[in-house]
C-alpha cells in the first residue's frame, strides 16, 4: 500500500501537493492529517466528492505502507501513528533540507514559492490532465504560499505553474473566495462604515449589495476595501459608493458574467470590465447614484441558476420513528448516500447510508432512524441561491440538502450536483465548446412539424411549471446531427396527467400504464390542426414518462420502478450516450443540454460505456444493445465495458427467449446487421444464448443479397439465413429457446432441408417431376429464401419450380376419370400424378397427347383390376 502524507494543520499548499502527487501516482492514497486550516476544511467540505482524499478518521492506522510520499513537510506527523523506519519515503518540499536524509529517503525538493509548483512541473512533463476542480485546488496551493504570487519567494516557476493551471480550468473566483487580503487602519475604518450601511436586493435570483459611506478625507485603496467587503458578504455583485471631499467614488465588483460591473460603471462615466470596474462621479449625490444602480440592474440582470434548477425531484425520505431493520433493504436498493428524515412532514435530520450500515454492523438493527440520524433542520427552498446552498453545506456538513416547498420535501441537492454545476460554470479553457441545441438545429434535422410539436409541449409544460425533458435516442442523434423521429419526454411530475392535459387541449387519444407512469399520446389530423402545425406529417404518437428510478430484485429480473428525478431517471439507462436530455421547461432553460454522466464526452470520443459495473448483470440484454449501438454509430465499446460484457455473458442464458429475440430483431433493422452478428459470435454472446447458436461464415454475402430484395417478412428472412445452416435438431433447440413458435421453426427447417438435404436440386438438369416431388410440400417463404441464397444450378432450379413447374396441372381431373367409367379410389391420384409428371418432363405437350396418354393409363388400370 502506498501513502501520501503531509503536515498537521494542513494549509492549501499541503493538500494541493498531496493531490498533485496522487495524480502522478494514482495507486498512492492521500491521507488527510488530523487537523486542517479552517479554510481548507471548508473547501473540502464542499468539494470532497470530486477529490481522492481519505479522511484521517477513516484511515486504518494499523496498516503498514510499502511506500510513502511526503509533501510540504520533511517529517511524518506523529498523529498518523506510522513507524516509517526503512519504508521507502520520497520527500517533496519547497525549502532546503533541514536534516540529513536517511538511507531510505529520497529528496525531490527545490526552492520555489510552493510545493505544489514542483509537482505541477512533473504533471506537465508526463502530459497528465487535471480537472477544473483539481486545478483550482492546486492554484489555491500556489496562491496561499506565494501571497497570490506577490511574496518575495515567488519564482517564475510558480507563475508558469499557475498559468498552466488557469489553462486547465482553475477558477479564480473560487480561489479568491478562499483567500484574504489585510487592510490598513484607514481602509479598516471605511470597511466598518460600509458594513453599517448595506442595501440588499435579490434580482433575478442573485443577491446584490450596495454599500455607502462618507469619508471626511481622501481614502486610497477603496477597491481593496471593496474586495475585502465582497469576501465578507459573499454577494453575487457588490457596489460601494463612497462620498469623498472632491467626488463620489463608485467601485463595482461582480462574481458572475450575468451582472456586468463594467456596464454599471460606464453609466457614470467610468470604465472597466464585466467583473471589476470603477467610476469617479462629480455631478451626482450618493443616493441618486444608488437609485440609478438599482434601476439599471433590474433592467439588465438575467435570471440566476437557483437551487431548484440543481435539485433532484422526488426525494426518498424516511420517517424518524422507522425501525432501521425495516428500511435498510430499501435504502440499499435505492443506493443514495443520504435520506432526509421527516416527522409530520418537517425535516428533523439526515440519515446517511454509511451511518445506517455502521449501526447494523454493531447489531443495532432495532434502533429507530432518529437514533442514528444527523439531527438538524437544514433545508432550502427551490428559489434559494447556489451561494446559500454552498454556505449551508459548510454549516451543516450535510452532503445532501432537502429542498422544501409548502412545508413538504420536494427534492434534494447533493454535493455531486454542486460539483457538476461548478464544473459546468467553470469549464476548462482548453475544452472545446459544448454543443448547442436550439430551434434552428431541430428544424434543420427534424423539420418544422417536429419542432412545432416540441414547442407546443414546452408551452403547455411551462404553463404548469413542470420540468419536462426530451430524452432517449432523439437527443443522442440530434447531437450527432442524425434524424430521429421517435419523440420521448420525461416529466418531473405526473406524466399521465400531463399527457391527458395535452389530449384534452389538442385532441387525439391517450393510452397509459400507471405502474410505470407512462403514457402514449396518439396524434391524428384533428390534433395537427388544433396544434396549428398541420403543414407536415405528425408522428403517430409521442411518449411521456414520469421521471423514475428502478432497482432489480435479482439479476436478469425486470425492474421495479419508483418515482424519482430527471437525474435518477437518466441514471437508470443503459449507456452514457443515452443519458443525455434536453430541457424544454421551464422556459428559462429551454434547449439546455443535461449531461450528468459525461455522455457528451463519450459521444465525442465515439464510445459505448455503461454507467456502473453491474449494468449487464441487472439486464444482460444490454450486451446485445451495446453491440447494436456500436454497429449503428460506428462506436467502440469502451475497454472496461467490454470486460464487463465478458464477465456477464453467462447471464444471457437466464433471460427469456422473447427478450433476446426482440433485441436481435432490432439488430435486423440496422444497415449491416451481419457485422453485429459477427461481433456477438466473436465475444461469445451467441453461444451464451444457446451453445449451438453459430453464425455461418458467409453470412455477410447472404445478408447483402437479402437487402437487395424487398421481402415482406424481412425479420423472419434474417432468422432463416442465420439458422438454416444448422442441423434441424439445433434449429429446433434454438427456436424453442427464443420462443419462435412452431410455424417459424418448421419453415427454417424446411429451408435447411431444401438447401442441404435434397441432392436432386444440385444436378445440372434434373427431371422437373423429381424436383416437384421434393419441393411440393415446402413452405413458399422457405422456397423464396432458398432460391435467393442457393448457389447455381440449385438457385435456377428452385426459381423455375416457383415460377413454372409448381403451376403445371393436367387438363384431366377426377371428373374426367369418373366419366371414363373408372371406379374411384387411389388409382385416381396415381393417374393424375403420372399425367402431371408427363407434362413436366415433356413426354406430352398437347391436350391431344394427354388424352391419348390418359386412355393408355386408364386401360392399364382396368386390365390390372380384371386380372
TrEMBL record:
CBS domain boundaries: 311-367, 373-428
Metal-binding among keywords: yes
Keywords from the UniProt entry: CBS domain, Magnesium, Metal-binding, Nucleotide-binding, Nucleotidyltransferase, RNA-binding, Transferase, tRNA processing, tRNA-binding
tRNA-binding recorded as keyword: yes
SMART domains: CBS (SM00116)
A GO MF label: nucleotidyltransferase activity
SUPFAM superfamilies, A to Z: CBS-domain pair, DHH phosphoesterases, Nucleotidyltransferase, Poly A polymerase C-terminal region-like
GO biological process, one term: tRNA processing
InterPro entries with a match to the protein in the record: CBS_dom (IPR000644), CBS_dom_sf (IPR046342), DDH_dom (IPR001667), DHH_sf (IPR038763), NT_sf (IPR043519), PolA_pol_head_dom (IPR002646), PolyA_RNA-bd (IPR032828), tRNA_nt/polyA_polymerase (IPR052390)
Cofactor: Mg(2+)
Annotated PANTHER family: A-ADDING TRNA NUCLEOTIDYLTRANSFERASE, POLYA POLYMERASE
Family the entry assigns: Belongs to the tRNA nucleotidyltransferase/poly(A) polymerase family.
Protein name per its UniProtKB record: CBS domain-containing protein
Species this chain originates from: Phototrophicus methaneseepsis
Amino acid at each position: 500500500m502506498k501513502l501520501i502524507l503531509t503536515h498537521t494543520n494542513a494549509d492549501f499548499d499541503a493538500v494541493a501537493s498531496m493531490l498533485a502527487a496522487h495524480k502522478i501516482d494514482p495507486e498512492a492514497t492521500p491521507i488527510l492529517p488530523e487537523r486542517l486550516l479552517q479554510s481548507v476544511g471548508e473547501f473540502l467540505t464542499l468539494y470532497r466528492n470530486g477529490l481522492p482524499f481519505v479522511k484521517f478518521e477513516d484511515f486504518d492506522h494499523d496498516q503498514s505502507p510499502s511506500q510513502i510520499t511526503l509533501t510540504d513537510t520533511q517529517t511524518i506527523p506523529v498523529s498518523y501513528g506510522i513507524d516509517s523506519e526503512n519504508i521507502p519515503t520520497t520527500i517533496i518540499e519547497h525549502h532546503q533540507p533541514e536534516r540529513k536524509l536517511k538511507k531510505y529517503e529520497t529528496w525531490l525538493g527545490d526552492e520555489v514559492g510552493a510545493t505544489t509548483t514542483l509537482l505541477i512541473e512533473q504533471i506537465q512533463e508526463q502530459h497528465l490532465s487535471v480537472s477544473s476542480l483539481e486545478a483550482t485546488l492546486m492554484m489555491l496551493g500556489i496562491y496561499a504560499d506565494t501571497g497570490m504570487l506577490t511574496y518575495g519567494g515567488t519564482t517564475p516557476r510558480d507563475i508558469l505553474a499557475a498559468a498552466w493551471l488557469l489553462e486547465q480550468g482553475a477558477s479564480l473566483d473560487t480561489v479568491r473566495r478562499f483567500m484574504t487580503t489585510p487592510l490598513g487602519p484607514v481602509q479598516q475604518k471605511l470597511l466598518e462604515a460600509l458594513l453599517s450601511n448595506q442595501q440588499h436586493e435579490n434580482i433575478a435570483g442573485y443577491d446584490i449589495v450596495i454599500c455607502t459611506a462618507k469619508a471626511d478625507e481622501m481614502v486610497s485603496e477603496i477597491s481593496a476595501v471593496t474586495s475585502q467587503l465582497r469576501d465578507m458578504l459573499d454577494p453575487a455583485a457588490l457596489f460601494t459608493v463612497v462620498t469623498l471631499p472632491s467626488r463620489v467614488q463608485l467601485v463595482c465588483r461582480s462574481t458572475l458574467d450575468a451582472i456586468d460591473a463594467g456596464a454599471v460603471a460606464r453609466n457614470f462615466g467610468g470604465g472597466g470590465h464585466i467583473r471589476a470596474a470603477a467610476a469617479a462621479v462629480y455631478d451626482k449625490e450618493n443616493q441618486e447614484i444608488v437609485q440609478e444602480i438599482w434601476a439599471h440592474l433590474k433592467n439588465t440582470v438575467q435570471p440566476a441558476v437557483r437551487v431548484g434548477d440543481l435539485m433532484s425531484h422526488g426525494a426518498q425520505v424516511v420517517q424518524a420513528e422507522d425501525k432501521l431493520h425495516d428500511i435498510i433493504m430499501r435504502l440499499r436498493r435505492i443506493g443514495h448516500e443520504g435520506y432526509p428524515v421527516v416527522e409530520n412532514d418537517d425535516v428533523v435530520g439526515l440519515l446517511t447510508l454509511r451511518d445506517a450500515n455502521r449501526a447494523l454492523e454493531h447489531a443495532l438493527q432495532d434502533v429507530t432512524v432518529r437514533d442514528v440520524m444527523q439531527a438538524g433542520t437544514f433545508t432550502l427552498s427551490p428559489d434559494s441561491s447556489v451561494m446559500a446552498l454552498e454556505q449551508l453545506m459548510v454549516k451543516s456538513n450535510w452532503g445532501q440538502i432537502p429542498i422544501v416547498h409548502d412545508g413538504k420535501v420536494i427534492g434534494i441537492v447533493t454535493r455531486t450536483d454542486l460539483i457538476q454545476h461548478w464544473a459546468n460554470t467553470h469549464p476548462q479553457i482548453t475544452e472545446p465548446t459544448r454543443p448547442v441545441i436550439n430551434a434552428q438545429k431541430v428544424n434543420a434535422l427534424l423539420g418544422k412539424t417536429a419542432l412545432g410539436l416540441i414547442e407546443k409541449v414546452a408551452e403547455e409544460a411551462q404553463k404548469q411549471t413542470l420540468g419536462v425533458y426530451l430524452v432517449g435516442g432523439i437527443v443522442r442523434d440530434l447531437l450527432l446531427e442524425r434524424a430521429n423521429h421517435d419523440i420521448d419526454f420525461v416529466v418531473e411530475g405526473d406524466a399521465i396527467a400531463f399527457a391527458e392535459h395535452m389530449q384534452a387541449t389538442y385532441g387525439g387519444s391517450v393510452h397509459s400504464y400507471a405502474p410505470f407512469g407512462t403514457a402514449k399520446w396518439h396524434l391524428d389530423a384533428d390534433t395537427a390542426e388544433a396544434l396549428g402545425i398541420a403543414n407536415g406529417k405528425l408522428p403517430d404518437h409521442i411518449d411521456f414518462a414520469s421521471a423514475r428510478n428502478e432497482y432489480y430484485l435479482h439479476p436478469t429480473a425486470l425492474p421495479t420502478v419508483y418515482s424519482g428525478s430527471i437525474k435518477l431517471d437518466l441514471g437508470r439507462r443503459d449507456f452514457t450516450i443515452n443519458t443525455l436530455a434536453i430541457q424544454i421547461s421551464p422556459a428559462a432553460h429551454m434547449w439546455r443540454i443535461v449531461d450528468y454522466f459525461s455522455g457528451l464526452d463519450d459521444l465525442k470520443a465515439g464510445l459505448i460505456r455503461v454507467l456502473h459495473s453491474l449494468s449487464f448483470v441487472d439486464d444482460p440484454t444490454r450486451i446485445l444493445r451495446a453491440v447494436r449501438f456500436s454497429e449503428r454509430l460506428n462506436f467502440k465499446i469502451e475497454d472496461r465495458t467490454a470486460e464487463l460484457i465478458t464477465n456477464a455473458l453467462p447471464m444471457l442464458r437466464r433471460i427469456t427467449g422473447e427478450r433476446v429475440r426482440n433485441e436481435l430483431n432490432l439488430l435486423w433493422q440496422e444497415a449491416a446487421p451481419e457485422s453485429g452478428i459477427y461481433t456477438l459470435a466473436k465475444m461469445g454472446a451467441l453461444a451464451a444464448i444457446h451453445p449451438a447458436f453459430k453464425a455461418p461464415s458467409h453470412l455477410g454475402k447472404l445478408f447483402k443479397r437479402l437487402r437487395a430484395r424487398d421481402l415482406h417478412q424481412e425479420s423472419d428472412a434474417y432468422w432463416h439465413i442465420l439458422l438454416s445452416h444448422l442441423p434441424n435438431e439445433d434449429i429446433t433447440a434454438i427456436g424453442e429457446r427464443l420462443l419462435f413458435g412452431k410455424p417459424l421453426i418448421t419453415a427454417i427447417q424446411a429451408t435447411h432441408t431444401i438447401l442441404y438435404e435434397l441432392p436432386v436440386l444440385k444436378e445440372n438438369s434434373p427431371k422437373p417431376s423429381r424436383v416437384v416431388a421434393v419441393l411440393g410440400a415446402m413452405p413458399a417463404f422457405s422456397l423464396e429464401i432458398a432460391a435467393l441464397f442457393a448457389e447455381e444450378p440449385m438457385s435456377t432450379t428452385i426459381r423455375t419450380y416457383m415460377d413454372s413447374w409448381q403451376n403445371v396441372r393436367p387438363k384431366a381431373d377426377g371428373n374426367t376419370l369418373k366419366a371414363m367409367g373408372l371406379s374411384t379410389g387411389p388409382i385416381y391420384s396415381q393417374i393424375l400424378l403420372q399425367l402431371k409428371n408427363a407434362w413436366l418432363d415433356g413426354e406430352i405437350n398437347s391436350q391431344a397427347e394427354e388424352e391419348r396418354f390418359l386412355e393408355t393409363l386408364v386401360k392399364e388400370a382396368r386390365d390390372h383390376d380384371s386380372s
